[in-house]
């Protein structure tokens, strides 16, 4: 059956090369392949499945909606499903946090949300430049690629990517250097060559970029700088929002209020495509139909997203994520100290990374883990970071099992590496 994909599917396919199994079903933290083998999922659809595979309460809400012939597609017409989601999101997420935003539903993917945010920022300010950060990743369409740092992905555009500038992310220049000194100096100096930007777009944790974590102080200063210079702040919470860092929004711990927020991935709670742009009311200056998308009315996703908000009716999930985060951090730190002292552990909530100086090691560990029934990906510009993205609802014993597998995979990868010179000598 694999020959079907090799014969007919484009060479662009990627994850199937790292995880070559034919998957047939999934539940909770586990995926099952056609041979009945179970895999613990520390990948979760690149952050799409924060609540695990096929969570019962969300699934039942979806099935009930479909069985009563609920609207599936509506463009931006009014539907009960959309109304219910907007009302519930306001009640459960925005109002308790003192946030006031208008809702824009663009196309159903994260890059659609980013494109809408960039377009609106330029329209509102009348300025063209948008500032992104080193190692950022915001999507694969042209506007999102222009504020993405990865050179390989940028090159795929095939055209110049302009009207943006890249400045150093927190920690990019090493410990003890506040990279915002550089950015603020550029804004203040008429001779810097940087035009006053319309917006700054930032991920509080650069997931694809290598699990690079911005400090609370750095984020707070970035917010102050943008406010002082009349620059809009866009927070891309597509991968690390919806509870991935513990709080629903990843910027909550910093106590900042972005001008625009982009959400997607786990927003639907069930793996259905859904994207949302949250806009401060005074910035909602769109003309009717000025930005649209055929699938901005994906009602089944509104239904599952509304059901997923049950996880946020109290603070229990955030508390559980914080407790599991402590477990993961301690265990990864111990594993690294024992087996790879030069590696670096970093993360927040339930997104963690181990960065290795050997840029091949993370991929070898991922492969060794897959053989042992654990799906875990790599990140960073050279795939030098082993990246953990377990579901937020994973049971503690499952989490511990996955960490055991990572340790075993690391030992195997290192033993293969250490055996190489002997093998070459024998040859």
From TrEMBL:
Its EC number is 2.6.1.76. Its cofactor is pyridoxal 5'-phosphate. The keyword Metal-binding does not apply. SUPFAM superfamilies: PLP-dependent transferases. Coiled coil: none annotated. It is an enzyme of class 2 (transferase). One of its GO terms (molecular function) is diaminobutyrate-2-oxoglutarate transaminase activity. The keyword Transferase applies. Pathway: Amine and polyamine biosynthesis; ectoine biosynthesis; L-ectoine from L-aspartate 4-semialdehyde: step 1/3. Keywords: Aminotransferase, Pyridoxal phosphate, Transferase. It holds the Pfam family Aminotran_3. NCBIfam families: dat, ectoine_ectB, PRK09264.1. PANTHER family: DIAMINOBUTYRATE--2-OXOGLUTARATE AMINOTRANSFERASE, DIAMINOBUTYRATE--2-OXOGLUTARATE TRANSAMINASE. Belongs to the class-III pyridoxal-phosphate-dependent aminotransferase family. This is Diaminobutyrate--2-oxoglutarate transaminase. It comes from Thauera mechernichensis. The gene is ectB.
């Amino acid at each position: 059956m694999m020959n079907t994909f090799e014969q007919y599917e484009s060479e662009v396919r990627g994850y199937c090369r790292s995880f070559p199994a034919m998957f047939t079903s999934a539940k909770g933290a586990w995926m099952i392949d056609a041979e009945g083998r179970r895999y613990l999922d520390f990948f979760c659809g690149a952050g799409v499945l924060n609540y695990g595979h096929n969570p019962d309460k969300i699934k039942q809400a979806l099935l009930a909606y479909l069985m009563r012939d609920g609207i599936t597609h509506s463009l931006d017409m009014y539907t009960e499903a959309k109304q219910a989601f907007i009302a519930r999101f306001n009640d459960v997420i925005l109002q308790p946090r003192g946030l006031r935003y208008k809702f824009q539903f663009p196309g159903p993917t994260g890059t659609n949300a980013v494109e809408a945010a960039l377009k609106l920022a330029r329209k509102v300010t009348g300025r063209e430049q948008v500032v992104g950060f080193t190692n950022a990743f915001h999507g694969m369409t042209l506007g999102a690629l222009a504020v993405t740092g990865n050179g390989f992905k940028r090159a795929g555009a095939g055209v110049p990517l302009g009207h943006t500038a890249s400045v150093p992310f927190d920690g990019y220049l090493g410990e003890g250097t506040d990279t915002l000194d550089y950015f603020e100096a550029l804004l203040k100096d008429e001779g810097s060559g940087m035009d006053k930007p319309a917006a700054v777009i930032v991920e509080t944790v650069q997931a694809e970029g290598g699990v690079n974590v911005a400090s609370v102080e750095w984020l707070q200063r970035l917010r102050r700088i943008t406010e002082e210079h009349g620059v809009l702040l866009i927070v891309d919470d597509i991968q690390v929002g919806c509870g991935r860092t513990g709080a629903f929004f990843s910027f909550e711990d910093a106590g900042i209020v972005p001008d625009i927020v982009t959400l997607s991935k786990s927003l639907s709670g069930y793996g259905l495509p859904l994207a949302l742009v949250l806009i401060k009311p005074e910035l909602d200056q769109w003309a009717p139909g000025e930005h649209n998308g055929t699938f901005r009315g994906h009602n089944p996703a509104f239904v599952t997203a509304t059901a997923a908000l049950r996880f946020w009716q109290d603070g229990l999930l955030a508390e559980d994520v914080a407790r599991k985060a402590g477990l993961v951090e301690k265990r990864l730190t111990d594993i690294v100290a024992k087996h790879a002292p030069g590696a670096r552990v970093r993360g927040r909530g339930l997104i963690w990374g181990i960065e290795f100086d050997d840029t091949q090691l993370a991929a070898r560990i991922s492969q060794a883990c897959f053989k042992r029934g654990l799906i875990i990906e790599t990140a960073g510009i050279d795939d030098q970071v082993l990246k953990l993205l377990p579901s937020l609802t994973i049971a503690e014993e499952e989490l511990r099992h996955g960490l055991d597998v990572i340790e075993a995979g690391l030992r195997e990868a290192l033993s293969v590496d250490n055996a190489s010179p002997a093998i070459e000598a024998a040859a």
